[in-house]
Amino acid sequence: PDKDTHVWDILYSKFTDHKSFHTLIYTCSDVFDFMPLSTIINMSKTLLVPIVLIISVNVVDFWIKDAYVRSESEMRSANQYLHNGIDNNRRNAANNRQVNVAKDKKDIL
Questions:
Q1: In 10 A of CB 15, how many CB atoms?
Q2: Dihedral of the CA atoms 44, 48, 53, 58 (nearest 10)?
Q3: If you average pLDDT over every residue of the chain, what do you get?
């Protein structure tokens, strides 16, 4: 846990006035600065950003549709199991009534 505290300190220092030895060292370097807008614009001109956005949207869309289809199939199988149990109980009750009626007829004869 102590190894990662400087990372959180750096992030915290980016958005507040917090300063420590590590944050002062890392934030002095341009590598740890925010990305300039010109870089994002250049990446957009090369179609890197739009392609990454399109791929990301497609992946998330696939995950959502897949989760929906899986939940629907699970619901269908659960409902089918419940309905089969109800239908079987009804059939068993009807069969028992028929057997009882047949026994009663034999007893009468």
A1: 7
A2: 150
A3: 78
